Amino acid sequence: MSGARILIIEDEGIEALDLQYRLQGLGYCVPDIAFTGEEAVKKAEEISPDLVLMDIMLPGEIDGVAAAEQINARFDIPIIYLTAYADKNTLQRAKITEPYGYIVKPFKERELHIAIDMALYKHKMEGKLKESEKWLATTLRSIGDAVIATDNNGLVTFMNPVAENLTGWKTKEALNKKLIAVFNIINSKTCQPAENPVARVLQEGVTVGLANHTLLISKDGKEIPIDDSAAPIKDDKGNITGVVLVFHDITEREQAEKALRESEERYRALAEELRESHRHKDEFMAVLSHELRNPLASIRNSLAILDRATPGRDLAYRAKNIIERQVGQLSRLVDDLLDITRIKQNKIQFHLQRLNINELVRRTVEDYRPLFEKNGIRLESELAQFEMFLNADGARLVQVVGNLLQNAVKFTRCDGNVKVSIESDAPRQRAIIRVTDTGIGIAPELISRLFQPFMQAETTLDRSRGGLGLGLALSMGIVKMHGGDMSAYSAGLGKGSEFVVYLPLEGISTKEPQAPLPDILHYSRRVLIIEDNKDVAETLRELLELSEHEVAVAYNGPEGLNKAREFGPEILLCDIGLPIMNGYDIAKAFREDKDLNSILLVALTGYALPEDLQRAADAGFDRHLAKPVDLDELDRILAQLPDR
After folding, report:
1. pLDDT tens per residue, range 219-257
2. Is the peptide bond before 197 cis (omega within 30 degrees of 0)?
3. Which of the residue ranges 35-49, 195-209, 268-282, 338-352 has the most confident prediction, judged by mean pLDDT?
4. What architecture does CATH give domain 143-249?
5. What is the pLDDT of residue 331?
6. Between vectors from CA 361 to CA 360 and to CA 366, what angle results, nearest 5°?
7. What whole-number distance in Å separates Cα of residue 605 and Cα of residue 588?
């Protein structure tokens, strides 16, 4: 085509001028020459040539292929590559730009002439085809269904507005993209990619319907149920030149089925939530049982000792001390167990104080000694040479040592030995507690899982002996929260085991005398008890009367108010959960009565969560004592009243 305007892109100046001379000799116009890829893109925009002769190997940041990509993306200009050599990767990149031809250097003028004329003719024919397609597109745009057309390579050539709306792709974005990039479909049941209908049409040359349960995934991720078919586009000779895909949104038809599926999923989720809730309930009950039975065992044994021991003897005195300590332990555990959420979230509050670890372990060993004697197991203890002190929660550490002793009893046969020892690791500033037994040992594969909560394998230590699998996990959690660690060792089954607890030290001393508690001055007080549980009320009355206090008892609120006006108490011990009037109402009534509002009000209740304490204070209570009552604390409250 004489007179066609051709832009030359060639970095070799002499070759560029020679090529310009040849083209002009063939009747073409060469308006300009560019020497780099960047310059090629710029001049293509300025000149708008009919064709570009592009050298592949160009200097600069972009080579001929990259420049061709930019020109193709922005302008409708055919490109012919000029190349003397290029590696496979470069040639592969060049193919993607769909050039109108390649001319290999050196070349003859006839080859150049033919390549250019063919490219210009092909581009002209493609232009006419585009005009025809534009006319067809106008028709297809009026169709209510979505329409996408592809060429025989499966590349998008057309989309109508309905298809744009459903896919989320604009036509200019989708053109020349693989259909699967624009028409992304999956099976709604399996969520796996669905069969590409265009590929099958191109392969078989037949109309193909979309599979059932097909979802179109739009560009923004929206899932749209669709249905319809793909058909081949053929030329006059029956050759397949492309595919037309027609589909429509069947959301309304799918809504009922989708609603049903969602309903079923909600029911399944609810069922799973209920199962999970039930599992947590079982775990909680297991924890509750496990944590309460250890102290109860010591109390029960001590009560048995009191039944058999001579009153006033050392054995009876020790049993009494054990009961006192274990009741305190139970009280602390109940306080924590009441706050179920706090336990679930592992946010148990510690009551830290300076503790002598030798004394704590010694007392715990003595508490559990009757259990060992009952099972015929020798229990030895070896305390540290020097006294060591921790900043810790004593009740929780007793729980740790107690759990280890319980395990030792459970897994050591009669005539076996268990030894508890304490030593200091001065360089690391920590105390080490070892509990060693000659029991059944631990299989190597279980060592790494011993401290996991709620172990499921029936071969675990706790499961094999009917335990709950909580003690070691709870102990590890307590020790970790104290900044320490735990480990377990065993040479294998039948070879005993050793559990080691590491706790950070606060100090080591040859002697650390405990500061004596201040003496409690005893005065006779007038005490009114309002408690509907007669056993609690009467035993508390008797304890107070043994301390020479004057006591009156009422079993409900109205009776208590009447007795308060008659008796004139200095202090009221009032339960919260009462018939007729609850404790909060009674406190308010006392505060509103000018004759009773100076009485010290003490809430006496099993409701001991922080919000319970705050509600009691808001109602007018001065103090709050959790059941069972700490009698030393009650004595201190009574002693703090002004002397009459």
Report:
1. 888 888 888 778 888 877 888 888 888 888 888 876 777
2. no
3. 35-49
4. 2-Layer Sandwich (3.30)
5. 67
6. 105
7. 17
For the record, the structure tokens of 144 come out as 């209510």
Find, among 227, 217, 201, the residue nearest to 146 by Cα: 227
Average pLDDT for the chain: 82
Q: What is residue 313's three-state secondary structure?
A: coil
Where along the chain do the CATH 3.40.50.2300 domains lie?
A: 6-126, 526-640
- What pLDDT was estimated at residue 470? 58
Give the DSSP H/E element, type plus range, for residue 293.
Answer: helix 251-308
pLDDT one-digit tens code per residue, 570-598: 999 999 888 889 999 999 999 999 999 89
- Residue intervals of the chain classified under CATH 1.10.287.130 are 263-348
List, in sequence order, the alpha helices (H) in 6-48.
Answer: 13-25, 37-47
Partners of 421 in beta bridges: 382, 434
Place of tokens 């209740």: 605
Residues of the chain with CATH 3.30.565.10: 350-509
How far, CA to CA in Å, does 407 sit from each of 214, 379, 583?
59, 13, 43
> 263-348 has which CATH code?
1.10.287.130
pLDDT at 468: 41
| Cβ-Cβ contacts under 8 Å for 407 (sequence gap 6 or more) | 461, 471, 472, 499
Tell the residue number behind the tokens 């592949």, with chain if given: 56
- Domain 526-640 is classified in which CATH homologous superfamily? Response regulator (3.40.50.2300)
Degrees to nearest 5, angle at CA 196 with 195 and 200: 100
Residue 312 DSSP label = T
CATH topology of domain 6-126: Rossmann fold (3.40.50)
Using DSSP, state whether 408 is helix, strand or coil: helix
CATH topology of domain 350-509: Heat Shock Protein 90 (3.30.565)
The model's pTM is 0.37
Residue type, 185: I
Token pair for 248:
């429509």
pLDDT digits (tens, 9 = 90+) for 7-54: 999 988 888 998 999 898 889 999 999 999 999 999 999 999 999 999
**Dist CA 366 CA 379 (whole Å):** 10
